[in-house]
Amino acid sequence: MTAPLHEPTAKAAPSPVAEAAPGAVDEAAAVGGDTGPVQGRSPARIAWERLKRDRLALTGGAVILALIVIAVLAPVISNLVGQDPDVFHEDRIDPLFGTPKGSLGGISGEHLLGVEPVNGRDIFARILHGARISLLVGFLSALVAVVLGTVLGIVAGFFGGWVDAAISRVMDGLLAFPQLLFIIALVSVMPNDMLGMTGSSVRVFVMILVIGFFGWPYIGRVVRGQTLSMREREYVEAARALGAGRLHILAKELLPNLVAPIVVYTTMMIPTNILTEAALSFLGVGVKPPTASWGQMLSNAIDYYDSDPLYMIVPGVAIFTTVLAFNLFGDGVRDALDPKSSR
Amino acid sequence: MSNPVRGDGERDGGVGSSDPGRTAGRAEDAAPGEVLLKVTGLRKHFPIRKGLLQRRAGAVRAVDGVDFEVRSGETLGVVGESGCGKSTMGRLITRLLEPTAGTIEFEGEDITRLGVRGMRPLRRDVQMIFQDPYSSLNPRHTTGTIIGAPFRLQGVEPEGGIKKEVQRLLSVVGLSPEHYNRYPNEFSGGQRQRIGIARALALRPKLVVADEPVSALDVSIQAQVVNLMDDLQRELGLTYVIIAHDLSVVRHVSDRIAVMYLGRIVELADRELLYRAPMHPYTKALMSAVPIPDPRRRKDRSERVRLEGDVPSPIAPPSGCRFHTRCWKATTVCTTAEPPLEELRPGQQVACHHPENAVDRAPRDSGVAGTAQVVPTRR
Ligand SMILES: Nc1ncnc2c1ncn2[C@@H]1O[C@H](COP(=O)(O)OP(=O)(O)O)[C@@H](O)[C@H]1O
Ligand SMILES: [Mg+2]
């Protein structure tokens, strides 16, 4: 039996798709008996099976899950160890130098990661609460970017013409925009309370919106390109030949094929956004004290880099670990969904 | 291959047994031989847009004035080199594209300007089989979803439910009902094309346009798929328009054959007439390209014509007869006057000033204009 022509999976030999590919199941088997499971393996299921064998990605995923649990349960956990992120422990501070008493930044059974210089707030509790800010901004700004990018990307790719031209120019403009400078300027002129929110809530809310707004063109471009190439696929024409309207084509034919690239770009965008939040807080335009954030802790720690290095290392490691975990997981997801091998 | 339609005793008389959604109020079926589809002066020009302001800078004249009829129950083959506008023509008559000019009548009704909504009921009667089995099936849908789509989109509830009907259709096209939950990536090209056929035939259409249905398939599988289509035509009384880029695929299944060149029909004839005595030089050239399997018949081919060069650009087609730049018989008149499509023999229409196998239409004209060569057969 000859192998089928144009078999796109043929090259990706080790992939599970190739094993199930019908090289040996051609015409004859179709009419008579059959091999393999009766339940088909969906592209999503194939991707999941590939992801399950990717150790690095799984490790990244496990760390992300742990971070989410930590962020959600931050108040509970800090209560368990009997610490509050905002309570001062001046008795722990050397009054002469302003640094924590004892070695290693004041680490003790009580203060697991030591205390801050000057006012002596518990670093462990602040790191836990900082995770909330990082993940909240990281996820929600990615959500804003995904929603905007997907909707505008689909509209541009599907309708084409001047609609596409207009949206594409806006995306080009935003991508060329000095966004960090803009965000710094914007956040620093923000009022202290708006929409019934005050202080750090306002800052977090604005950061989510602004980071998301500058992020959507990255997803928008990908979605537009995919939509454009799929619009001419024959399965879309087949649906039209059966009387399908635009809504059906968008929702049932195009969207399912956009899920993979959207997921990939989202997992790559979250760590970038976490870093942006850290940078903004580091520069003093992010969340304000007393609310804890990793970037802001890092910024404070700069002044004590030689006298209390642990104060700097702890939030640094937290940021590094989080971003690395998301990137490892994102790479794994991208490989698992590789459109070249599952088409 | 065993006949998949009749090979299975479990099925009660093939695809025709259950009659999904044949509702009252639909036009009477055309009797065999009556005109089912009539196309007049059909044109499709794709505008070429340039620059920031998307100014119109010319047009691709993909289909540029074609007239033909398709009769109920017949198979019309459409051949021509790639880029001649065959796919565009197929998408115009299935109303996937908006015609620039001309009219399309289906069962006497003018469907040229019907919108998505107006076309919807007609979609049951006119269906399409696509060229590329790898892009014609949505990779995220199961076979069941793909073949069930016609029923859902048209709001038709087949007897026994959609799932049962889809499984029946699967066995009709030679697949197993157990393939219901499989995804396209688990099938070969030939099997995918069978799924595409099942989808096209699910609602029992009257007219099926097949755009190069087997050209993407392995040669060993092409015949199986063509035979399946042939069997289903007999079973269901289908009318086919089968598009192909050479004559080898359509020669056995077509009743009549239309030869297209650069957006025009240059010859339209009954199959027998066309094969026995092709009149247009382009037809003759296409036939020379088809291998003749029977060695005894090779001697029938007195000369082998080789087409030189590529099809000229449809943006600015040659003046006069569009084929004159590649025709070995071309004279001055061919460069200035476009020959009309005329019936030179009952059942054979040709658009040529100097037809083969017929009286010359412009005998006094002289001056050689063509560049093509006539190469004597070696054997
Ligand atoms: N959507 C389109 N936009 C612009 N030009 C097109 C489009 N579709 C087809 N064409 C052009 O029209 C001509 C005929 O194409 P087509 O109908 O696909 O030919 P065939 O099927 O005979 O190979 C080609 O020159 C092609 O480039
Ligand atoms: Mg074509």
From TrEMBL, chain A:
Entry keyword set: Cell membrane, Membrane, Transmembrane, Transmembrane helix, Transport
GO-annotated biological processes: transmembrane transport
Gene Ontology cellular-component annotations: plasma membrane
Biased composition (Low complexity): 10-24
Major localization class: membrane
Keyword Metal-binding: no
Gene3D superfamilies: MetI-like
PROSITE patterns from the UniProt entry: ABC_TM1
Region span, Disordered: 1-24
Bilayer topology: Multi-pass membrane protein
Record bears the keyword Oxidoreductase: no
Transmembrane parts of this sequence: 56-77, 133-159, 171-190, 202-223, 254-274, 310-330
Cell compartments where the protein resides: Cell membrane
Domain ABC transmembrane type-1: 131-330
Pfam families linked: BPD_transp_1 (PF00528), OppC_N (PF12911)
UniProt similarity note: Belongs to the binding-protein-dependent transport system permease family.
Protein's recorded name: Peptide ABC transporter permease
Organism whose genome encodes this protein: Embleya hyalina
Organism classification: Bacteria, Bacillati, Actinomycetota, Actinomycetes, Kitasatosporales
